[in-house]
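Figure 2 data, in text form.
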Amino acid sequence: MTDLPQVVPSNGDSIDVVIAWVDGADPKHRARRKQYLADPGGDATPERAAHRKQRFSDNDEIRFCLRSIHNYAPWVRTIWLVTDDQVPAAIHRRRARRHNVRIVDHREIFRGYEQFLPTFNSLAIETMLWRIEGLADRFLYFNDDMMLLGPAEPSDFFSSDGKVNLRGRWSNWQERPDKQNSFHGSNKLRGAEMLDYTPEHFFSSYHVIYPFLRPAMEELFEEFKAAFLANAQYRFRDHQQFWPISAHDHLLLKSDRARVAEPRNSAHFSKRHCNAATREVLETQLKQLTEGPMRMACINDLEAVVDKVPDAMRYLSQATGPAAPFEKRSRVEKRSRGLHASDNRRHRLARFSFRKGN
């Protein structure tokens, strides 16, 4: 299933994108989840939050994620789509290859450690995704529910002085009233503690597009190999794991290779917000994605949003721009073919302007 690496060599100036995606509704994937949930191995005891079906759902978010990168980040060299022997229904695979979208199977990033497969664990996948053959030394990691909302520049993520821009804030775990119930928070703290940061002072990354240095992940793997391999063995997310992104960020901060930036131009629709917010609130916020200053968004439970706002997909289509040439047309866009007629010129000019400037 894995596409062969492209022939363009990686170099310090290139920036790639890595996206983790799965279609949990696929009968084969669903059957394997059920099989391994019954026997997860070792002392793992998966909690409901780690295996509920919404965690693996595909609501066509990947369409908007890929489209937004094509429209708003034409400087990206290669998009690597990490999957479990699947291809998104939203794209034509051959056309996608012509636009430097590559399918990477879990077997590639877990090569040499195939005994850990299959995995249904984002933390395990993030532990190994830097091992993609041919991956650029600088890359952006997207969850499939993340997207760009307007033109982005490399300097938004990697500064001219060589530092990585990390979006988040410094945190004190003792001041977190929800710390006893925070699954992701405890994983994040474990990653910080690997680099000698403490619960009273650690960096808490916001849920937004993550810039990475591949060599930094390689450094961590060599120094903490036993911990990395232990992390990769869990087939479902577990409280005992660390968040690899947190370990990466704290290594960069500790070695003065990163700076903390406030994510003023990003919007995060958390799962809790998607389920608790009213239709009116969600619709107002979706409209703001198309009209306001936001340049990045993450929608954790699009299914819940669409249930309340039937026009949600139309708003996202408008916010992320015209369909990419490798897309298969969605049902929404078949009904509204003229939606982007007035926007096409703006997006073509954005891509042309970037090429002219470089």
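Caption note: Residues 219 and 225 are 10 Å apart (CA to CA).
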